[in-house]
Amino acid sequence: MLSKNKTKFILSLQKRKVREEYRLFIAEGDKIVREILASGLEVKTLVCKPEYLAGIPSDVKERIEEILPVKYEELKQLSSLSTPHNAMAVVRMTEHEMDMEEITRDIIPALDFIQDPGNMGTIIRAAGWFGIKNMVCSLNCVDIYNPKVIQATMGAFLNVKVHVCDLSEFLSSAQKKEVPVYGTVLDGESVYNHSLGRRGIILIGNESRGISEELLTFVTDRITIPKFTDSKYGIESLNAGMAASIIFSEFRRRG
Amino acid sequence: MLSKNKTKFILSLQKRKVREEYRLFIAEGDKIVREILASGLEVKTLVCKPEYLAGIPSDVKERIEEILPVKYEELKQLSSLSTPHNAMAVVRMTEHEMDMEEITRDIIPALDFIQDPGNMGTIIRAAGWFGIKNMVCSLNCVDIYNPKVIQATMGAFLNVKVHVCDLSEFLSSAQKKEVPVYGTVLDGESVYNHSLGRRGIILIGNESRGISEELLTFVTDRITIPKFTDSKYGIESLNAGMAASIIFSEFRRRG
Q1: pTM of whole model > 0.90?
Q2: Is there a single domain that holds both residue B242 and residue B144?
Q3: A35 CA: distance to closest CA in chain B (Å)
Q4: 3-class secondary-structure state, position B201
Q5: Distance (Å) from the C-alpha of residue B154 to the closest C-alpha of chain A?
Q6: Cβ–Cβ of A156/B125 closer than 8 Å?
């Protein structure tokens, strides 16, 4: 049984302010919750159907602070999804230290003003697939702990450390270390022809505004995904998730 | 002013059944509606703010069957978006003839059971960017005239003819013409190494189920996007939109 206070608290975690105050976030879904538990992330509360609980190994169960077996109707009350799953977890955020030396040894996406949760989740998912371990987000990106972002990553957030910071400071310190900064712009050199190194920052801007003027000054390599049409209608850009996927693929293919 | 009946009718076009009965669909958004008008597609009703109307050339205006200048509040009533735009159009569906000879001269994506509107829209958008003129969808895909699909294409549906048909019949007739069928599967050859022709069908399956067994038998070239991680958590697949974008990019890069 869920108390009224508990229900209220879990629902309040839909709000960024509350998530940040308690350093907690929500993950929904049978598979994603199972993976969170297996990954060793700290689960404060597991809300699930009794059948779901039966499938969790006992050593894993012991690590969970609080387990609340509930009915489907109760899960439904808590869920932000129209068809809720059998499990939901309240998870403690992990603090990642950002070691410039270490993270710039590989490619590292830096996201500027990505506000759509689906796009953000997709980029994290693509990064995970391509074995990218770290990612940087500007302060005006959507909160990576937004339940819609977590959902869209399909669990890939377990593999990618996302550092939120002031992007100009980050790029300026990268510049001092002579880390290349690849910027996706409309008039850059084709990413198919441009030489791509094994390390570097991949700066990805908002699809309608592009990379901000201030950040563009840090770009050392202006690249673009060629467009194969000259139609005037409806082909202005790729979305940030698609563009990121293609660029990660290009780096890894040749890496 | 919008009559009650008009409002009711436009709202009813959110339903597939009604769209199919009247062969009409809805597009929302200042830019997308402007592009639809410019593209020559038949607009039955244009609902917009008077300021928006002022920006439409008079010869374009003359082609619109019915123009309804409304207040923002009225647009809001009709909109499926939380922040509606200044314009909405009721558009007549175009009938595309499917000429096997012609469409199989280039690459042509064939989508099997893609049900997520965002994914469908993204794939059409990527196809548009990469100059792909035709696409085929199985009968169990999400309706391409679903307002969420139209929205996610960002107008690219104006450039890509989507043919909905029985995929096994389509593939079987392609087989007779010896058109290669590339299938994205988990255990195929790396798309980076596999030889890709200038024409062929790219069969894309549902991300959780993959390509159906029946359709797999038509695949001549089993390809895969390599995964660059061996993590056990959260990296099971790319979403269909990302996978399609990367594969289109690979074909065009080498084409």
Answers
A1: yes
A2: yes
A3: 6
A4: strand
A5: 6
A6: no
